[in-house]
C-alpha cells in the first residue's frame, strides 16, 4: 500500500514505521493517524512479523498534533468527529511496538510515544506536553499516561509549564527504558525488536497483555490475571521447547504455538 506521510519497511521479522512529514516536524494530522494505524494493523496481520518499531526523524519524532489542522475547528467539529479517537486502535495492537524517539516528542508526539509499549530514546530527545502554551491541554492521553509514567509532580510540572524534559531526565523518571546515542536509536530499537521477534510470539503477546493489565486493574486482580495466564502458557508447545532447550543447554526454536 502506498502511504503519503509514513515510510514502511520490514527488517527481517521487524516491521518499521517511520513518520515522514519532515517539513512539519512530523506533526500528526488525520492522514498520519489513518496511515500509522493501517500500517500497524497490516504488521499485526502479517505472520512473518514479530515486533514493530515506530520512529520519526533525527530532529523530531513528532512535534505534536498538527496545530494548523486543528486551529479553526469548532467544538462541534471536534466532538462530532471524535477528533483523534482513531489513535485508540493503536492500543489494540497485540504485537509489541517500540518507540524509537530522536529529537522532539511534543504534545501528541509525546503521547504517541507513550502509546507504544516502551520508548528507546536518543540522547537528543526532548519530551514535553506544551499544549498549555497554545491555550489547550493534552488530548491523546498526556494528562493520564504521563502521570502514570513519571508521577503527579513531574506530570503537573510538564503540563502546567509546558517545559521539555531531556533524555536523561526522561530515563531517570521512568518515561523511557533506555537512552542511546541519537544516531543509533533506530538500530538499537530494531535490535531490541529483533530479540523480541525471535522469542515465542504468543508468550510475548501474553507478557504484553499482563503488563498492560497492571494499568487497568487492582493488584489483587492483576496478580490473579498473571497467574491464570502463566498457568495457561503450559498449553504452549513453546513452553515445552523453551524449558527443554534450557535443560539440554541449546538454543530454543520457537514455533509460535
Ligand atoms: N503542527 C503543525 N506544524 C508544526 C508543528 C505542529 N505541532 N510543529 C512544527 N510545525 C511546523 C512549523 O510550523 C514549521 O513550518 P513552516 O516552516 O511552514 O513554518 C516547521 O514545522 C518547522 O518548525 P519550526 O520552524 O518551528 O522549527 P524549530 O526548530 O524552530 O522549532 C519546535 C521546533 C520547538 C518543535 C517548534 O516547531 C514547536 O514549538 N512546535 C509546536 C510544538 C507544540 O506545541 N506541540 C503541541 C501541539 S498540540 C497537540 O499535540 C495536542 C495533542 C492532542 C490532540 C488530540 C485531540 C483530541
From TrEMBL:
InterPro entries listed in its UniProt record: ClpP/crotonase-like_dom_sf, Enoyl-CoA_hyd/isom_CS, Enoyl-CoA_hydra/iso, Enoyl-CoA_hydra_C
Alphabetized PROSITE patterns for the sequence: ENOYL_COA_HYDRATASE
Alphabetically ordered keywords of this record: Lyase
Single Gene Ontology MF annotation: enoyl-CoA hydratase activity
Pfam family, one: ECH_1
EC code: 4.2.1.17
Highest rank taxon of the organism: Bacteria
Keyword NAD appears in the UniProt entry: no
Family, similarity comment: Belongs to the enoyl-CoA hydratase/isomerase family.
Protein known as: Enoyl-CoA hydratase
Species this chain originates from: Neoaquamicrobium sediminum
